[in-house]
């Protein structure tokens, strides 16, 4: 009897999980469906079966060079992630293994910067970029994206590092390992799964960042977010073209997310259940 | 051998010299059919100016406005040519943010630009932006439904006639709405329509001393007429309809009349996208016999920011893109119907264009009927037909647009919406230092 109840619970839980997953995925699915409609069909109202035309894709391709934007997205998201890890690994290490009484406060303060509306600092940042000649440069944007995502990266790595027993590091120190060796040869290999999932999540966050990537670029450093933005039209139908552009822009990261979902889920839930 | 070396040497030297002189200019633009068409035709420009290369940045209208405003206000120098509208030009020119366009070339023929448009883009007699395409608004109506209703649309209808026709054309059982009008909140959305409409009702945003006028009977008449008309004859969910939503409704045969931008004419009469392409008639925007019609005036124009280092190359490009030659180029490649409308008198005098665009005369008459410097029945201290050319208007216009959209949706009464609009406008004008 108990077994039957468990099976029933499982079925309900599975069904509920599927419903929630479909609800969350639906906007993306509908974007993909809309990209295969004509402009007229796209604005006519809700319909799940498209006519299957690929005219929007050909128009989008003809209108803008996708590849240049794609390349910038890859460079910016990977570059900013590497920069973030270079800063965050030592920071998280010190907070996890040599905490002071203010460590928690610092962590909370870092996270609080994520709650500030980005537009509040648009002008100062814009002026700094202008004066440093960094407007429309990949290097400047990489630093910007790194700074935006740094709190999340530090927090995630901190949670990981806390799971590693301090005794192992002590043992390494007793064996004469320097600080550098301790981080590179002992801590990092043990934290590889954590670092990998942090990296993946950060790449996704950087890929999707649309406020700064649109406002600090013009042509040279513009990534896929700027590509999508160019298809919205004040006078003329554009939903199908916009959906095609969005599908092209999210496809790479969607595929990457699909293949790395285990690491991602592990990364996001690690340390959540204690 | 020597000759080959010499030739190669000369070629390399000239390539280097060319590279040293090559200038690239960055153009910020919105995504619309005319602008995208221009991007495909720039070979003509670069062939004539091999030392200039063009970089395009195409952005959504609101993002574009924010980007170029940030850039020009901070002298960021990111753009050499900007696409801006008749709202920005007078404000930015007064701030000395734009260069006057005085090097457009001898054959540019600036006098050919339609006077109403040139007036909206000039400050103290100097042109600060060159119009790429211009528009007014007018009535597009279904000739078949009008005939069925037993009415004939005059060339210059009154609002009473529009109401009478809408009442007769509405057939909700068959999905036909007598009239489709903008309801989506925004200074460039419902407020463009309602401000232009209010001009024909004798209303104004501010009196000569910048005192807001939403507490006056003219505004009450405007908004009440609009809400009643739309409730009786408008489409469902009209408070979220903008240009594109109404375009789709009209093209699908769901609107008897649609009062909106003249550029829509080429879209509703295109058989590839419109089910009613051969049944569309055009008339001037309605009036109330007070001497002003309810039509607006807008021109997407090319301007050069004062911070650019490449002013000469930028002026060359602006001159090319807004010239008579460009219209002829578009016509030779894509037909006269694709030529950018609403900017030059010569286009409307062209018999081939008139033939290809049956709405040409009505478009020209609508543009000529708008006067941005004297937009209202009573005197006003501002420039602009469907907007008030002051920096505060974007925020205030959108706030008032939200209040009026809520009145259309039935979330508030007309009186409440007007009272709140008066309060919001008074607060904004006090804060801006216009009134005490």
From TrEMBL, chain A:
What keywords are assigned to this protein? Cell membrane, Membrane, Transmembrane, Transmembrane helix, Transport
ABC transmembrane type-1 domain segment(s): 70-260
Question: Mind listing the GO biological process terms from this record?
Answer: transmembrane transport
Give its localization. Answer: Cell membrane
Primary subcellular site in the record, as a coarse category: membrane
Listed Gene3D superfamilies? MetI-like
Do you know which InterPro entries this protein is assigned to? BP-dep_ABC_trans_perm (IPR050901), MetI-like (IPR000515), MetI-like_sf (IPR035906)
Annotated signal sequence range: none
For this record, the Gene Ontology CC terms, alphabetical, are: plasma membrane
What Pfam families does the entry give?
BPD_transp_1
Transmembrane feature ranges: 12-33, 74-94, 106-129, 141-161, 182-207, 238-259
Membrane topology category:
Multi-pass membrane protein
* Sequence similarity: Belongs to the binding-protein-dependent transport system permease family.
What is the protein name given in its UniProt record?
Answer: Carbohydrate ABC transporter permease
TrEMBL record, chain B:
Q: Which family does it belong to?
A: Belongs to the bacterial solute-binding protein 1 family.
Query: Which residues lie in coiled coils?
Result: none
Q: What is this protein called?
A: Sugar ABC transporter substrate-binding protein
Range of residues in the leader sequence = 1-19
Instruction: Report the locations given in the UniProt record.
Output: Periplasm
Which InterPro entries would you find in this protein's record?
Answer: Bact_solute-bd_prot1, SBP
Pull one GO CC term from this UniProt entry.
Answer: periplasmic space
Q: Which UniProt keywords apply?
A: Periplasm, Signal
- One of its Pfam families is SBP_bac_1
Q: Which domain of life is it from?
A: Bacteria
Organism name: Mesorhizobium waimense
């Amino acid at each position: 009897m108990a077994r039957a109840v468990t099976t029933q619970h499982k079925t309900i839980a599975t069904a509920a999980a599927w419903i929630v997953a479909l609800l969350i995925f639906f906007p993306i699915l509908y974007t993909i469906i809309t990209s295969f409609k004509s402009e007229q069909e796209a604005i006519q109202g809700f319909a799940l079966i498209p006519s299957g035309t690929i005219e929007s894709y050909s128009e989008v391709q003809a209108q803008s060079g996708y590849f240049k934007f794609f390349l910038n997205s890859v460079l910016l998201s990977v570059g900013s992630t590497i920069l973030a890890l270079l800063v965050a690994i030592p920071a998280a290490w010190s907070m996890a293994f040599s905490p002071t009484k203010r460590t928690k406060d610092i962590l909370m303060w870092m996270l609080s910067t994520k709650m500030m509306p980005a537009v509040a600092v648009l002008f100062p940042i814009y002026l700094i970029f202008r004066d440093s000649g960094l407007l429309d440069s990949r290097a400047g944007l990489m630093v910007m994206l790194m700074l935006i995502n740094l709190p999340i990266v530090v927090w995630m790595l901190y949670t990981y590092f806390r799971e590693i027993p301090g005794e192992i590091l002590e043992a390494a120190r007793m064996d004469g390992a320097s600080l550098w060796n301790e981080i590179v040869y002992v801590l990092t290999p043990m934290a590889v799964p954590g670092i990998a999932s942090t990296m993946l999540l950060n790449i996704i966050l950087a890929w999707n960042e649309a406020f700064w990537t649109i406002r600090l670029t013009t042509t040279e450093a513009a990534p896929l977010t700027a590509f999508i933005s160019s298809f919205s039209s004040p006078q003329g139908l554009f939903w199908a073209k916009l959906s095609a552009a969005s599908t092209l822009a999210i496809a790479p990261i969607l595929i990457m997310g699909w293949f790395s979902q285990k690491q991602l889920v592990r990364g996001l839930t690690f340390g959540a259940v204690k | 051998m020597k000759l080959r070396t010499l030739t190669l040497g000369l070629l390399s030297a000239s390539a280097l010299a060319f590279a040293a002189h090559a200038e690239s200019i960055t153009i910020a633009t919105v995504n619309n059919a005319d602008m995208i068409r221009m991007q495909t035709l720039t070979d003509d420009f670069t062939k004539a100016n091999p030392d200039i290369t063009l970089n395009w940045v195409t952005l959504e209208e609101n993002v574009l406005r924010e980007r170029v405003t940030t850039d020009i206000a901070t002298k960021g120098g990111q753009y050499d040519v900007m696409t801006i509208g008749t709202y920005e030009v007078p404000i930015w020119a007064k701030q000395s943010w734009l260069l006057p366009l005085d090097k457009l070339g001898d054959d540019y023929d600036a006098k050919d630009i339609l006077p109403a448009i040139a007036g909206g883009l000039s400050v103290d007699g100097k042109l600060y932006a060159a119009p790429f395409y211009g528009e007014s608004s007018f009535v597009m109506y279904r000739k078949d439904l009008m005939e069925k209703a037993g009415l004939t649309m005059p060339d210059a209808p009154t609002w009473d006639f529009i109401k009478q026709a809408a009442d007769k054309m509405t057939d909700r059982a068959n999905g036909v709405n007598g009239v489709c009008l903008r309801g989506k909140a925004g200074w460039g959305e419902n407020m463009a329509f309602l401000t232009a409409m209010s001009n024909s009702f004798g209303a104004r945003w501010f009196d000569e001393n910048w005192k807001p006028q939403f507490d006056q009977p003219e505004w009450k008449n405007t908004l009440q007429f609009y809400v009643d008309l739309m409730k009786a004859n408008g489409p469902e969910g009209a408070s979220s309809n903008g240009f594109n939503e109404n375009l789709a409704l009209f093209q699908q045969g769901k609107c008897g009349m649609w009062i909106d931008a003249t550029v829509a004419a080429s879209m509703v009469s295109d058989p590839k996208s419109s089910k009613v392409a051969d049944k569309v008639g055009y008339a001037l925007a309605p009036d109330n016999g007070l001497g002003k019609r309810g039509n607006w005036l807008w021109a997407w124009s090319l301007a050069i920011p004062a911070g650019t280092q490449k002013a000469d190359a930028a002026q060359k490009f602006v001159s090319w893109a807004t010239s008579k030659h460009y219209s002829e180029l578009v016509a030779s490649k894509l037909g006269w119907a694709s030529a950018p409308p609403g900017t030059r008198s010569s286009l409307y005098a062209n018999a081939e264009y008139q033939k290809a665009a049956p709405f040409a005369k009505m478009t020209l008459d609508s543009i000529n009927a708008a006067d941005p410097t004297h937009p209202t029945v009573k005197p006003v201290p501002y420039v602009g037909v469907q907007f008030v050319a002051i920096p505060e208007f974007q925020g205030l216009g959108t706030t008032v647009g939200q209040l009026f959209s809520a009145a259309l949706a039935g979330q508030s009464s007309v009186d409440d919406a007007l009272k709140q609009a008066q309060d919001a406008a008074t607060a904004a004008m006090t804060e801006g230092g216009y009134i005490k």
